[in-house]
Amino acid sequence: MGKNYRAELVGVFGDPVDGNPTGVMEEAGFAAKGLNYRYITMKVTPDGFDDAMKGLRAMNMKGINLTMPHKIKVLPYLDEISPAAKIIGAVNTVNVENGKLYGDNTDGRGFVQALKNEGVTSSGKNVVILGAGGAAKAIAVECALAGASRITIINRSEEHAKELAETVNQYTDAKAEYLIWQPAQKIPQGTDILINGTPIGLHPNTEERPDIDYDTINQEMIVSDVVFNPAETLFLKAAAEKGAKTISGLGMLVCQGALNFTIWTGEEAPYDAMYEKLKSEFEI
Ligand code: NDP
User: CB of 11 within 8 A of CB of 42?
Assistant: First the structure.
């Protein structure tokens, strides 16, 4: 016969993970390319993480995505880690090659690519990020590596903001600074790109939006959100009302998904098929 009935396995380990839509987009990509890959969304608690990583090897999986709360916990399990992921200090994608585990972080690169797809580059720009968690960190580092001239972190806890600004200053050519988030926070003058890097507005809290002075947003700004559910957050709606160009979190999601697809399969991702599937999933 000589037929191969074995599928290449990829997926995601996370908790909570039930609402993670990455699988539908990756599976749409595999189907579009006729690849026998399966993406499985798996609930893995912190207690079970070690066993799950053993399972990854035991089942000869091709790779895995890591989401909350495993992006940092995975580091000691890896044989190699990409330079950017090392700076970010977190890994969201693992590729297995000849039994070795390679870690990468595609969140920030996905964000930079989503901007590019809308004709926006980070090069020479003043970038302001609300938040200093995992997503904000990946975006700050990748925007800086892509040539942003200034990165301003606005965060409620000083410790995280300071640490992220120091990381950007230490490892990139961009100048980074931070502000402690004040009520009705004013967005600094001269901001080119403003990003909500916090989960504020995420389903089911869709009536919430970051506490900023929306009158300090203007039509020269590009405004983006990491929150992708809903795609049009109150934050983006308010920014659009001020005349800003807005880019939803779905763009970042599909771009990082496309990067993962290529890492695992070695093939160019069928971006349109993946994006269309995501859009239909979110009924856009
Ligand atoms: P983290 O928990 O690592 O970081 C959350 C950040 O938001 C922290 O800086 C925290 O501040 C801040 N924050 C949280 N709640 C509030 C609040 N009420 N007021 C002010 N600041 C707040 O989360 P992640 O970075 O991993 O995830 C953030 C969001 O990004 C999630 O919604 C996630 O779904 C989304 N995401 C989207 C992706 C995409 O492809 N579109 C990819 C990855 C993530 P403090 O430091 O003070 O605690």
Answer: yes
Residues with CB under 6 A from ligand 1: 68, 107, 110, 131-136, 155-157, 160, 181, 198-200, 202, 226-228, 249, 252-253, 256
Report residue 282's pLDDT band, with 50, 70 and 90 as the boundaries: confident
Q: Whose CA is nearest to atom 40 of ligand 1?
A: 253
Q: So which residues are the catalytic ones?
A: 71
- Compute the distance from residue 57 Cα to the ligand 1 centre, in Å: 30
- Give the pLDDT of residue 283: 82
Chain-centre distance for alpha carbon 143? 12
Q: How many Cα atoms within 13 Å fall on the side-chain side of residue 39?
A: 22
Residue 135 Cα: closest atom of ligand 1: 25
Single pTM value for the model: 0.95
Q: Is cis: bond before 230, omega within 30 of 0?
A: yes
